Automatic annotation (TrEMBL):
UniProt keyword list: Transferase
Name of the featured protein: III protein, CoA-transferase family
Listed GO CC annotations: mitochondrion
Coiled coil: none
UniProt GO BP: bile acid metabolic process
Length: 167
């Protein structure tokens, strides 16, 4: 590998972080291979953030926040009432919460681990749909409790005064 080609990306080596896939794509454009960099810098922390995970039937599929929200089964809960049509949430659920936050916490945990294990980095694999599925576990677990969801003025039904926006 020609190291002079990578001089403009030296900050990644210094920080020990390589947010993949975008950084990996840029490094690949310069002839770098993330695997090679991992071998040369044992302290490197690589975070792979995908929509559906690295493996499985949807691993190579493209997607957007609404796809990940739908596949986790969370989309119908955004309507409030079972009879109302679901509304597509902004990209806060899967992109930011399911993906970004799980990746950020993974990186922070990896940085702490690297401090304690003698400087060894690791690979973090985050999936937006899997992260959102975890975040939605409360809804799935308690969705059949009527006083929370389906009764008139239920807390999460969409018509409970304390969980609504003032007009």
């Amino acid at each position: 590998m020609n190291r002079t080609v990578l001089n403009g990306i030296r900050v990644i080596e210094l920080a020990g972080l390589a947010p993949v896939p975008h950084c990996g794509m840029v490094l690949a454009d310069f002839g770098a291979n993330v695997t090679v960099i991992e071998k040369e810098n044992k302290g490197l922390i690589v975070c792979r953030l995908t929509g559906y995970g690295q493996t499985g039937p949807l691993a190579q599929e493209a997607g957007h926040d609404i796809n990940y929200v739908s596949i986790t089964g969370l989309l119908p809960t955004t309507s409030g009432h079972n009879c109302a049509r679901p509304w597509p949430p902004v990209n806060l659920l899967a992109d930011f919460a399911g993906g970004g936050l799980t990746a950020a916490f993974g990186i922070v945990a990896a940085l702490l681990k690297r401090e304690k294990n003698g400087g060894h980095g690791c690979i973090i694999d985050c999936s937006m749909s899997e992260g959102l599925s975890y975040l939605a576990s409360f809804i799935r677990r308690y969705h059949d409790i009527e006083h929370l969801w389906t009764q008139p003025y239920a807390a999460f039904s969409g018509d409970c005064p304390i969980y609504r926006c003032f007009e």
